């Protein structure tokens, strides 16, 4: 589950926020299997989509994270969840997207790391209301 500014998000919803106001993010990983899972790393990467196949991830002058954009998850037991909180601060107006990825963080494996990518979250940063 992904919440942006307290609102549940999916790929069909555009969340609107104001430039200069921190936007709270919440990502909840629920283990619906019969076995413990982990360790994982959760990474959130903002980008702009130029609608021509190009994604711009070089946004350090437009967006900043309040805190970290990577969280480490040790183990999630069966039927339990793990919730992670962060915030984004938009410095300019525009349409932005947030890529959220989980990947295995187990260095003892000989196989390549596996990734789970959630649908991108669409956030529209607008001018503050005077």
UniProtKB/TrEMBL annotation:
It comes from the Eukaryota. Residues 16-125 form the Trs120/TRAPPC9 fourth Ig-like domain. GO terms for cellular component: trans-Golgi network. PANTHER family: TRAFFICKING PROTEIN PARTICLE COMPLEX SUBUNIT 9 (PTHR21512). This is TPPC9 protein. The lineage of its organism: Eukaryota, Metazoa, Chordata, Craniata, Vertebrata.
């Amino acid at each position: 589950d992904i919440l942006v500014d307290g609102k549940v998000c999916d790929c069909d919803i555009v969340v609107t926020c104001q430039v200069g106001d921190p936007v709270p993010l919440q990502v909840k990983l629920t283990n619906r299997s019969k076995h413990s899972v982990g360790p994982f790393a959760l990474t959130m990467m903002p980008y702009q989509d130029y609608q021509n196949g190009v994604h711009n991830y070089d946004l350090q002058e437009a967006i900043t994270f309040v805190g970290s954009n990577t969280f480490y998850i040790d183990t999630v037991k069966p039927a339990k969840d793990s919730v992670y909180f962060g915030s984004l601060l938009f410095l300019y107006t525009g349409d932005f997207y947030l890529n959220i990825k989980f990947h295995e963080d187990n260095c003892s494996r000989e196989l390549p790391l596996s990734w789970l990518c959630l649908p991108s979250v669409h956030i529209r940063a607008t001018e503050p209301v005077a």
